[in-house]
Amino acid sequence: MRERTQLLLIAAAALITSAPALAQSPFPISKLVLEGDTVTDVGLVTSISNVGVTNNGDWIVEADTDNPDTDRDSVVLRNGSLFAREGDPLPSPVGSSLNTFDGISMNVNLDVGWNLFLTGPPSNQDSGIYYNFDLVIQEGDTSIAPEFGAGTVYLGFFDAKLNDTNDMVTLASVDDPTIGGTLERALVKLDLGPAGALLGESAIVKEGDLLAGQTELVVELGTSTHQNDINELGQSLFFADLDGSTATDGVIYVDDRLIAQEGSPSPVAGRNYELLSSRAMNMNNVSQVVFKANLDGTTADDEMIVADGRELIREGQSLPAISGFQFTSFGSSSGPVAIDDYGNVLWYGDWNDPDTGLDTGLFLNDLLLVQEGVTLIDGLLVQGIGNIAETFAISDDGQYVIFEATLEGGLEGAFLIEVDAPKPVPDGDTVAGTQSTAVSNGVNIDVTWDAVTCPEDDYNLFYGPLEQVGDYAYTGAECGLGTSGQASFPAPANNAFWMIAGVDAASREGAHGFDSVGRARPAGAGGLCGVVTQLNTASCP
User: Mean pLDDT, the chain, as a whole number?
Assistant: First the structure.
C-alpha cells in the first residue's frame, strides 16, 4: 500500500516526569528582550507586549521604555533592532507622526502590517492601516470594496493581519449608507502589490450579511485580535453574532464554511457549544482551525480547546505533565491559542495544584514547554507566563515559539523556543525521499522505508485492518525497530493499512504521515509502544 494513503494526526504529548522535577524546557529557550535591556537612543525596556515569529526565526516585539517623554517611549523591535518608535514621522498623511501601535503582524519577508494611531490628523482621521510605514487606508477614507454601498466610509480599525503573499485583513468600523445606523463592523480583505500598494478591497463579511446555511443576519463581528485571521490560501477566519436566539447566535466561519455554532454539537458526546463569543481562535495554512469554547452542562468541565474539529483538552482533564492535577482554565478566553501547519497546537493551561506558584504552563500539544515556578531561563525561574492579547505565538512551520514571561525579580521578557520535533518518514511527496513499500509473503508483510534521507533515532510501525483506516484505528504495533529501514508485521486475514513513525532520543514520536495537501494525519499511537508524546512536522532533515 502506498504510504500516503495510510493515516494519522497529532496525538499530542505528555512529559513523563513530576512537574517540580522539571528544571528546563524540553527545548532550548533564548532571551530576546528583557526588562532593563537598552534600546539605543531611547531608554531601558520596562515592559513587553505583542510578539510574533516567522518560519525563519525572525521575530518582532513591542516594548515600553523608561524614556521620560511618554510620547516617545514605546518601540517595536525586529530581530533586536529598533524598527519603529512612537513619535516617528510618517510619510503619509503629510505632517503625521506615529502615536501608538496596534495589531502588529509580520510576514516571512519581514514586512509588517498594522493599525497605527496618528498624531497630526483630526480625530476622525487619526488612524490607518499601514504596510510597513506606507499608508494603505486611512480612517475617513471611502472604501472601494464592491460589497459596500456607495460612499461607505472607514471610521476606524481594530487590527491587521498580513500573510506572506501580501494579502491583509482588518476588522474595520464603517458607515455604510445602505445599512441602518451610523456604525457597522466589517472584515475587509486588502489585496496589496509586491511593494504594498493597494490593488483592491473586498468585504469578507459585514453587518447585515446572511451567512451560508443561516437564516439570521450578522449583527456584530468579533473585535478582539484573536477573533479573525488570514492564511496563505487567502482564506479568512472570523467570529460573528447573528440576530437570532442568544442560544444559537454565535458562529465561527472560514469564508463561507461553518466551523462551529453555539447550540450545535461539540466534539464531546452529548454536549453542545454554549459560548463561542469573546474566545480566541487561529487558522493554519491548510485550513485547520483551533478555538476556545464553552460547553453546556456542568461547569466543572465546560471550557475546552477544539483543534481541527477534535477535542484537544478540556477543563477537568489531566496530563502526565501536571502530575495528576486537573485543568481549571486555559487562561483569558480571548488570550491566544495557535495552530501550526502540521496541526500542532500551542496553548496556555492553568491547573488545580494548591501551590499557585506552580500551576500554569505553556503547552505544545500535550508537551509542557514552560512552567511557572519550575522552568529556568538563564538561571532565573519563570514566575508568570503571558496569556492575554498577543503574548505567545508559533511559526507556521512549528519550529519556533515566542512567548512573554516574567522571571524572578519581576523581570518581564520575550523569549524564543526552538522546537526540535521528531523527523517524519519520507513519503516522496510531502517529505522528500523514497516512499515506503510493503510485500506480503503470506505470513508476514515485509516493509521497507527510507531511514537515510531524514534519519531518526528509532522507528515504530503501526497497523490495522483497512476497514478501520477512516477511524485511524490500529490493532497492533512493532516497536523499537531501529534504523535499518526494514521490518515485518503479521499479515491479517484480508487486508491491512500501516504507518511508520520516527522516534527521537527523548521518546517523542513524529507524524504518522500526511494527506494529499500536506496535513499531518489525525492519528497517534494511542499508547502503543509506550508513546504518549507526539509532535508533527514535515521538516526534513
Answer: 93
Looking at this protein, which amino acid is placed at residue 133?
F
Q: What value does the mean pLDDT take over residues 406-422?
A: 97
pTM above 0.85, yes or no: yes
pLDDT confidence tier of residue 523, bands split at 50, 70 and 90: confident
Phi (first) and psi of residue 438, to 5 degrees: -145, 140
C-alpha closest to that of 496 among 504, 505, 488:
488
Task: Work out the average pLDDT over 21-41.
Answer: 88
CA–CA distance, 224 with 115 (Å, rounded to integer)? 13
Question: Residue 432's CB: how many other CB atoms inside 10 A?
Answer: 14
Report the C-alpha gap between 461 and 500 in whole angstroms.
Answer: 4
For residue 458, CA distances in Å to 342, 420, 480 come to 21, 15, 6
Question: Can you give the pLDDT at residue 181?
Answer: 87
Place of cell 514547554: 369
Query: Smallest Cα–Cα separation from 278: which of 300, 250, 246, 245?
Result: 250
The C-alpha atoms of residue 97 and residue 349 are separated, in whole angstroms, by 40
d(CA 202, CA 146): 7
Closest CA to 423 of 395, 393, 447, 459: 459
Cβ-Cβ contacts under 8 Å for 81 (sequence gap 6 or more) = none
Amino acid letter, residue 149: G
Alpha carbon 77 to its chain's center: 22
Identity of residue 25: S
CA distance 440 to 462: 16
- Which pLDDT score is estimated for 17? 32
- Evaluate the omega torsion of the peptide bond into residue 426 and state whether it is cis, within 30 degrees of 0: no
> Max alpha carbon distance in the chain (Å)?
82
